[in-house]
Design goal:
Layout lengths: L2 E6 L5 E2 L4 H18 L6 E4 L4 E4 L2 E6 L3 E6 L9 H12 L17 H19 L4 E9 L5 E2 L6 H4 L4 E9 L3 H14 L5 H11 L12 H5 L11 H11 L15 E6 H20 L2 E4 L17 E4 L4 E6 L6 H17 L4 E7 L8 E5 L7 E7 L9 H16 L8 E6 L4
Parallel strand pairs: 1-6, 13-14, 14-16, 15-17
Antiparallel strand pairs: 2-4, 3-4, 5-6, 5-10, 7-9, 8-9, 11-12, 12-13, 15-16
Helix pairs in contact: 2-9, 3-5, 3-6, 3-8, 5-6, 5-8, 9-11
């Protein structure tokens, strides 16, 4: 069991309550995690003189020697059930079957404890009902025939006539499901806050001794299908898949100070979540949404990296950027120039930016773009991932965005704002 410190991503520096060795470990891991997550800068800023830590660009948790740092994404800072909402975003992005929900046990549990509870519930049931088994080919020297005789070793009968070399199939729990769950129990056990949960996870990691504790290769893990008999393992298997997608990918930190990280880039996570929501909502509304790298470009000399998603109807095409930062007018001005240029190169009739929901931005706001020969309107859209862990949370987000799409891609538009004209001369 370790001490826990919760930080807000992008928030102010907080006093570090762990040990000096934990702080040194975090300093070493910061550059490694930046590399593994593809971040432009290290996620942790450590002020040794003040004894504080600040974090930006990531969300999740990192387990140190005697401490666990839990990091809340800034776009979920007003959500009391933010941990379950974060997990729901991850399962949505990766299209997993597990849909976490908030209940009395999970509302205030730490992120690592949430994952641990799901694993222990499944492994507890597996201890009594069993684990999916596989046939494995074995060879052995036995006193009686088992399976088939091994003809390649028939000569041994001359040396020892009382034994036979046999080949046979054995039905054992040595398979990818058992290995993945045992590996996941190991991964989470060092990060949980409750001692009973740590003890349970370590116990379950030792179950089914014939099964390996190593993470199966991604191709095998992704292809695992559970029969109805073992459907109770589905959520736990999805937890193992989520853990395997983290930056550690099944490896510890240093040999002399193993640390576990379950961290995600907030910018990439929000962008991938918006993409998935846009595709689902567009299908429901009779439109289409697809990644911008699939769009046809009319001007290959203009960079289009600023566009992540294309929204399209029979008559209109909207080049859409996604920004995980909070809306400000200055930020819109900063994003506009490359977005309008990319929209023109992609033959888009309009452009749009999707922000996390905030009090400063009215959903569906539209601004006129004064850019001859380019997109005519900028749409400012929002997605609010808060409350995803509540019952019907994901359906709410889909319906809200579907409504926004119908305002963007149909003639039933709100009046275009005239107070601010972006680009060119009014």
């Amino acid at each position: 069991m370790s001490a826990e410190l919760t930080l807000l991503e992008g928030g102010p520096a907080q006093p570090f309550t762990g040990t000096a060795s934990d702080l040194a470990e975090l300093r070493l891991r910061s550059s490694e995690l930046a590399s593994r997550l593809g971040l432009a800068e290290e996620p942790f800023t450590i002020d040794e003189a003040a004894g504080t830590v600040q974090v930006h660009g990531v969300a999740g948790y990192v387990s140190l020697g005697d401490s666990t740092l839990e990091i809340m994404p800034h776009f979920l800072r007003h959500d009391p059930g933010w941990r379950v909402s974060l997990l729901t975003m991850l399962t949505t992005v990766h299209r997993l079957e597990w849909v976490p929900t908030v209940d009395r046990a999970s509302r205030h549990a730490g992120l690592s404890d949430l994952l641990g509870m799901i694993l222990t519930n499944a492994m507890s049931r597996a201890s009594s009902e069993g684990m999916p088994r596989n046939y494995v080919e074995r060879t052995a020297v036995t006193s009686s025939i088992r399976g088939q005789l091994d003809p390649s070793k028939a000569w041994r009968r001359v040396v020892d006539p009382y034994t036979v070399d046999c080949r046979f199939s054995e039905f054992i729990a040595d398979g990818p499901v058992a290995s993945a769950l045992k590996w996941a129990c190991d991964e989470v056990s060092g990060a949980v806050q409750q001692s009973w949960l740590e003890s349970e996870l370590r116990h379950f990691a030792d179950l089914f001794p014939e099964a390996s504790r190593e993470l199966p290769p991604p191709a095998i893990l992704d292809g695992v299908q559970l029969t109805p008999q073992f459907g109770f393992l589905r959520d736990a298997l999805d937890v193992a898949r989520l853990l395997a997608m983290g930056p550690q990918n099944g490896t510890a930190g240093r040999a002399d100070g193993p640390t576990r990280a379950f961290l995600w880039s907030t910018e990439r996570l929000f962008g991938d979540f918006v993409q998935e929501i846009a595709e689902r909502a567009a299908r429901e509304a009779g439109f289409s949404a697809y990644r911008a790298d699939r769009a046809r470009r009319t001007d290959s000399s203009v960079p289009t990296d600023s566009v992540q998603t294309m929204l399209e109807s029979d008559a209109e095409m909207v080049a859409t950027a996604v920004c995980a930062r909070d809306y400000t007018e200055d930020l819109v001005d900063e994003l506009m120039t490359p977005l309008v240029a990319a929209g023109r190169a992609l033959s888009a009739s309009d452009v749009a930016i999707v922000f996390p929901a905030s009090m400063g931005l009215r959903p569906g706001t539209q601004l006129r773009v004064r850019e001859p020969g380019g997109p005519s309107t900028l749409h400012l859209l929002t997605i609010d991932p808060s409350g995803l862990g509540e019952v019907g949370g994901i359906d709410r987000v889909l319906k809200e965005f579907e409504l926004d799409l119908s305002m963007v891609l149909t003639a039933q538009r709100r009046s275009v704002g005239g107070r601010r004209r972006i680009g060119g001369i009014a």
